[in-house]
């Protein structure tokens, strides 16, 4: 079972920088955060199921949360939420039930916002509605990005794009350490684990070497050509 | 060249029922529609390109509009907008430039909303901001649907899902007439035209017969098993 705790000062600071609250002034942030508590989940814990009546939306403080659909034995990941990412906030503006399943992928700590309490704030604090709408705009754009890349890019191209947008350059060389297991990267990119392995094998010829979570890129200009 | 015309009574009625305006009262609708004109496009006309400075958002009155990304010779359709669908309205709340390309797919008539004028309305008419946010929520959900189906379903399953959600039943038999060319259905489902043809061939064994745009389904329960 999850236990709800008061948000700590450090957790409030993380939330203040998250997209859902960063455009708000101090008083508005305080009002929004007064609707939230901190909850902790074990790996694989299910936060909610599709179609369940929605009481809360969430913002990730640490760990990762997977949003996914399942139907007739088939499963599809929609998003992997990282610290600072919020999800479910569209239910403040419209809708009754969750539109996907959410599951913690590691030990995760989340800020849990009471939807009814946030709704009650909107009249007096309309800029909170604006902040939620901006957050929705960002989710829409990143979901469109994901859809377009799925439709446009091969598996090695999707992996190359992830590496290029997450690596640290040292001249033309670059490197990164995956913040999570390869299985989570596969979910994020919409690939089966074996498709991700094949993509990494293909990228070896483009100078990408992998050792556990550490990835080295010989020449970013070569990787851009994939 | 497009010519901007005053909205007709019939066009205002279509807009009043579109998601972007349907939750507004009469005065709010009038205020929102005062920011719009009707514009007409020929097939293949480009409305705007990705990264162009955004001056307008749109709502389809008739015809179809394709939203797509292109990069390095690869193209991916993100959405096919039908009459009543709006697009680009997130730019009222955040952002400067368009996030995709838009192209008319038939003779199309659109309501074109001036973003600066709509922005100027928001303080006095905050419920217009709410209506835009609800529209964004709906776009987010349908883009998530599309992403999940792409990742979860085979090509015949995607086509079967489209048929089942758009057909008219007569007992277990059902039929529909595609509102657009098969090439547009392929784009909508994220399939190459030849993949759509193969999917229809596969579905023949499940009782789906195609003659031009007319599609007959022998038994919807069989089609549900695909």
Task: Describe the model.
Two copies of one chain form a homodimer. With 226 residues, the first copy, chain A, is α+β, with helices and mostly antiparallel strands. Chain A folds into two domains: 4-151, Jelly Rolls (Sandwich), CATH 2.60.120.10; 153-224, Arc Repressor Mutant, subunit A. In chain A, 40% of the residues lie in helices and 27% in strands. Chain A contains nine helices and 13 strands. Chain A has helices at 9-17, 19-22, 26-33, 115-121, 126-152, 155-166, 182-188, 193-204, 220-224; strands spanning 4-5, 36-41, 46-48, 56-62, 65-71, 74-81, 86-87, 101-104, 108-114, 168-170, 173-177, 208-211, 214-217. Chain A has a five-stranded antiparallel sheet with strand order 1-2-9-4-7. Chain A has a four-stranded antiparallel sheet with strand order 3-8-5-6. A four-stranded antiparallel sheet of chain A has the order 10-11-13-12. Chain A starts with a strand and ends with a helix. Chain A binds chain B through residues 68-69, 71, 74-78, 90, 93-95, 99-100, 126, 129-130, 132-134, 136-141, 143-144, 146-153, 190, and chain B through 68-69, 71, 74-78, 90, 93-95, 99-100, 126, 129-130, 132-134, 136-141, 143-144, 146-153, 190.
Topology:
The structure is a homodimer of 226-residue chains.
Chain A: E1 4-5, H1 9-17, H2 19-22, H3 26-33, E2 36-41, E3 46-48, E4 56-62, E5 65-71, E6 74-81, E7 86-87, E8 101-104, E9 108-114, H4 115-121, H5 126-152, H6 155-166, E10 168-170, E11 173-177, H7 182-188, H8 193-204, E12 208-211, E13 214-217, H9 220-224
Helix pairs in contact in A: 6-8
């Amino acid at each position: 079972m999850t236990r709800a705790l008061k948000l700590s000062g450090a957790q409030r600071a993380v939330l203040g920088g998250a997209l859902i609250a960063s455009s708000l002034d101090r008083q508005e942030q305080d009002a929004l955060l007064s609707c939230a508590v901190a909850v902790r989940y074990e790996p694989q814990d299910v936060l909610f199921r599709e179609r369940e009546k929605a009481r809360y939306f969430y913002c990730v403080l640490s760990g990762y949360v997977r949003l996914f659909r399942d139907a007739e034995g088939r499963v599809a990941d929609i998003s992997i939420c990282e610290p600072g990412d919020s999800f479910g906030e569209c239910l403040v503006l419209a809708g009754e039930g969750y539109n996907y399943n959410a599951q913690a992928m590691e030990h995760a700590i989340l800020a849990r916002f009471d939807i009814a309490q946030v709704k009650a704030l909107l009249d007096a604090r309309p800029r909170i509605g604006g902040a939620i709408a901006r957050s929705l705009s960002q989710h829409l754009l990143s979901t469109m990005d994901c859809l377009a890349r799925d439709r446009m890019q091969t598996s090695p191209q999707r992996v190359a794009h992830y590496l290029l947008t997450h690596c640290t350059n040292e001249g033309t060389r670059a490197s990164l350490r995956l913040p999570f297991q390869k299985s989570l990267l596969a979910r994020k990119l919409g690939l089966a684990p074996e498709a991700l392995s094949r993509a990494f094998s293909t990228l070896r010829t483009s100078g990408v070497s992998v050792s556990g979570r550490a990835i080295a890129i010989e020449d970013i200009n070569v990787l851009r050509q994939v």
